[in-house]
Design brief:
The chain has three helices and 23 strands. By secondary structure, the protein is α+β, with helices and mostly antiparallel strands. It is rod-shaped and about 160 Å long. It starts with a helix and ends in a 25-residue tail after the last strand.
Length: about 375
């Protein structure tokens, strides 16, 4: 008796659950589905693409000074950080055989003096004495020249500036010295490097893929890590025609002049640059996501009488998240950014079985 009652109760439960599932399925299927769109208006404004790169502060006039002399360094007259004037002596180099030249001249002078003494002792004629005195004078002049010319070259600074690197040490051959000091880690292959610190600029390496966009005269905004609260205006002043290659990456050096230097600027400071590649003012623009590109052109979905309608457009500059519209749209047009399907009952489950996801293991739950 109890078993029959339990079976009847279970049957009633199944019928009720099945009916509810069918009702839920039918009502959810009957809910109308609508297409929702997110739109934006065509605006007028500025489209100004930029190129962001990193660089460092350098000197506009930097000279690495060397010598063609073959003799070793005799004396280094400059130190790192020293201010020098144009024409000031920096390094003295010895001739290849200075001792032999001076010794020969001195020997000839000694011989001439001995000859003079002999003619004097012999009470020679006035002409003989005069000739020997002239020989002594010539020998003395040659000896003096040999001593003065003991230095093959005195290296002078070609500009007024600051010594930022000294690679010359006493005894070194030109081109073979080891670095004895540098300012700010300056790398130099010259005996002495002098830079004009009153004329600073910023250098940046531009990838070959972007260098065609850069031109002399383009405005540049410069930010220095060492001066975080300052922005400096400048412009592209020069572009190196010869590229550099490092690990198969080809770059071109771009030089940026600064309009107003800050006293806190130093050689080697790292810099962030934003180069203004172009600028169109009072032009139509739309968000980039509104543009659809296909093989036959570019298109935008425009709302016409409440319906999305695809129209062809011609685009111009692209800057950040906006694209310039040259033709195809007007200011104030509503354009579609994205569309999605929505239903009146967001909790409804569409399609499939009227029972949704099922009831687990059988109608009665897990067996025990």
């Amino acid at each position: 008796m109890e078993r029959r009652q339990f079976a009847a109760v279970a049957l009633i439960a199944v019928v009720l659950v099945s009916g509810f599932g069918i009702f839920r399925w039918r009502t959810s299927a009957a809910v109308p589905k609508t297409e929702e769109v997110q739109t934006s208006k065509v605006e007028t404004g500025v489209v100004a693409p930029t190129l962001a790169v990193t660089g460092y502060v350098s000197s506009v006039d930097r000279r690495e000074i060397n010598s063609s002399g073959s003799g070793p360094v005799l004396e280094v007259l400059a130190t790192v950080g020293e201010t020098v004037s144009a024409g000031e002596s920096l390094v003295k180099l010895e001739k290849g055989t200075p001792g032999q030249t001076v010794n020969i001249a001195y020997a000839e002078l000694t011989s001439a003096r001995g000859g003079l003494q002999k003619v004097l002792d012999a009470k020679a004629s006035d002409d003989e004495i005069a000739a020997q005195e002239e020989a002594v004078d010539e020998a003395e002049a040659e000896y003096s020249r040999s001593v003065d010319n003991r230095y093959s070259t005195i290296i002078y600074s070609p500009i007024a500036g600051t010594v930022i690197a000294v690679n010359a040490q006493i005894g070194d051959e030109p081109g073979g010295g080891s670095s004895s000091g540098s300012a700010g880690g300056a790398q130099s292959s010259g005996l002495i490097t002098v830079a004009d610190l009153s004329r600073l600029q910023v250098e940046a390496a531009i990838d070959q893929a972007d260098i065609s966009k850069v031109a002399i005269g383009q405005p540049v905004e410069v930010a220095l890590d060492a001066l975080p609260n300052e922005k400096f205006d400048g412009q592209v002043s020069a572009i190196d025609p010869v590229p550099s290659t490092n690990q198969n990456v080809v770059t071109y050096t771009v030089y940026v002049s600064i309009d107003e230097l800050d006293p806190g600027m130093r050689l080697g400071m790292s810099a962030d640059l934003e180069i203004a590649l172009d600028k169109h003012e009072d032009v139509l623009f739309v968000p980039n996501v509104a543009i659809r590109t296909r093989a036959n052109g570019q298109f935008v979905s425009k709302m016409v009488d409440g319906e999305p309608t695809e129209v062809a457009v011609k685009t111009g500059l692209v800057a950040g998240d906006r694209t310039e519209i040259v033709s195809g749209l007007r200011e104030g047009d509503d354009i579609v950014l994205q569309s999605f399907t929505a239903t009146g009952n967001q909790g409804a489950t569409g399609g499939g079985s009227p029972f949704g996801g099922g009831f687990g293991r059988g109608f009665g739950g897990p067996r025990r």
